[in-house]
């Protein structure tokens, strides 16, 4: 059965050099659910301002967040923040915001303990940064995320929403008790004011898109470069690392890889490239940014098209971009056979993280789709069109199927039913998520120890 797509966008916003399409994202939100005697409802964030104060004197980093959001149903609004908030207000009234289990035991969020009418409201959250910060003569702080485990995105650092929701964000960053200059590495636009910085992120960013890292000036080696996109834009490249030997090779390789990706999939979707170069391990993608080793650099840049170009709307869609990036890593093979039966897109609608089988079985499935469409130009032809057409839109697996079928005029539903949803197959035949539960070689597991080292 094909999912009935509901496409709606409310406004076109053109702002400075960013031209952003702001979508009403609630059509991609999971269903509201019962929370006590009321309904827990998902929100459409309109904008979020985060005032982050790094106070070296008291070795404390605090955040005041102001979030304007819409709801379409009466109920208790949901957001997420892992740290316990110090104070939460809605429309100026202090409220509680306890953790709540999402249905199917799939994840956890926070629910505001106040029933609100449908409409626009303002949420204020005060909290202390509990990870991603270390004070020295200055401060090292990075909001590094992952998408292979539950609650591993920006909710580790800031109050935010699920991946279905894109909204304008601004970080206001202030340093107290720090005499030397701080450097900021980010995929937003930085403005220096008298006593603080602001970083503005485009309104098509969601919880997994922003990149932010600050360190005392000189802590990292940096190289500034640029490339010229096929659409004529000059795209600045910043590569930084603790290891100066990595800088030039990473910058050079980035230009080669982006040229390859632009030839295959069109102009690079983002206006800048920021790379934190590490000597080993895997990487993680952001919108036009990545922390990565040499080994994973091409994989992570591919994610600037698939993951942070066309974006997964939930955990059931996360396999698509990993499968495409892995298919590229594997040399775009074409396979007539496809055996694996998986349930990569058949998890709870509330699930947030990606199924590991995307890297192996998912990549194999892409090579099989490429075989099926071999007389129609192959799969890359569709992917180029898709990333151009659906840029910065959060999508479901059902959208992927519908768009494929529209493009080629061929039904592939039964292929997805069998290999991606595991429908009509005996359980014993399915590859289970647990059996393939190994770390992806391309993505690092952000343990607290590793995070501390990376700061
Ligand atoms: Zn990946």
Rounded average pLDDT: 91
Distance between the termini: 47 Å
CATH superfamily descriptor of the largest domain: tricorn interacting facor f3 domain
- Write out the strand line-up for the largest beta sheet, numbering strands in chain order: 9-8-12-6-5-15-18-17
Radius of gyration: 22 Å
CATH top level label of the largest domain: Mainly Beta
CATH topology of the largest domain: Immunoglobulin-like
**Based on CA inertia axes, which overall geometry fits?**
globular
Small molecules bound? zinc ion
Question: Would you write up a description of this structure?
Answer:
- A hairpin with a 2-residue loop joins β1 and β2.
- Helices cover 20% and strands 31% of the residues.
- The chain has helices spanning 244-265, 297-302, 318-329, 361-372, 379-389, 397-408, 413-419, 448-454; strands spanning 9-15, 18-23, 33-35, 38-41, 44-55, 60-71, 76-79, 87-90, 93-95, 97-101, 108-112, 119-128, 133-135, 139-142, 168-176, 182-186, 189-192, 197-201, 212-216, 221-228, 234-241, 273-277, 283-286, 289-292, 311-312, 394-395.
- It is α+β, with helices and mostly antiparallel strands and 455 residues long.
- The strands form 6 sheets. The chain has an 8-stranded mixed sheet, with no helix packed on it. Strands 3-4-7-11-10 form a 5-stranded mixed sheet, with no helix packed on it. The chain has a 5-stranded mixed sheet with strand order 20-21-22-24-23.
- The chain is built from 8 helices and 26 strands.
- Zinc ion (ZN) is lined by residues 299, 303, 322, 325, 442-443.
